[in-house]
Amino acid sequence: MQSAGGRADQAHPLFGGGLSAVIPHSCTDVSELREIPDNQEVFAHAHTDQSLIVELVEYQDQVANQDAARYHFEDIAGSNKALDPGAFEVTSVVPLPKSELSLSECSSAWRLTGTQCVSKFNEEARNTVTLHLGLFRLPQFSTDVLITFNDPQSISPDSSSAAAMGTHREPWTVQDFQCLLQSLTLHNPGLFG
Predict the structure, then answer these.
(1) Strands 19-22 and 40-45: what pairing?
(2) pTM listed for this prediction
(3) Has residue 146 got a pLDDT over 80?
(4) GO: which molecular function terms (predicted)?
(5) Sign of torsion over alpha carbons 43, 124, 92, 47
(6) CA-wise closest residue to 52 among 176, 161, 143, 163
(7) How far is CA 53 from its chain centroid?
(8) Chain-centre distance of CA 161, in angstroms?
(9) pLDDT tens, 55-73?
């Protein structure tokens, strides 16, 4: 697969090779910098404040497929302390056609776009972040695979992230995120065991 810059993108092993996906350019594996939960793979852009999280979460069988992405988005908003009125908004939820996905084992897949006003490291300053969320439902493994692309839109001058904002060199795009979603591949179902 060719990326926008003309490079051939390589699939990156996730969770010890149980899954793989094409991760965008200029990424840093955050697990090399700090402790990350076993059910997450976290990548940060080297020059922007963007991040990608691939997460294995419990399949929520009480949530209908078309509502599941919103369910997880609101769960993230709660974790981000962004549940105040007006602090989060869902702008679209669309199904991802299985014919365009490498992860054929999923029962359904969804892409949600929304915004959340979040603070970093418990700071008072709040930043507006566009969240692109990909959800792959795997009821046979009691797992939902959740992929979150955090794309800050406006950074408070008081935020610790403000210093990074002047260096917007080749930020990740929605196309990079779409490529990641389409390239996600399961190699070892024992990962969910």
Answers:
(1) unpaired
(2) 0.85
(3) yes
(4) guanyl-nucleotide exchange factor activity; small GTPase binding; sodium channel regulator activity; transmembrane transporter binding
(5) negative
(6) 176
(7) 4
(8) 19
(9) 999 999 999 999 999 999 9
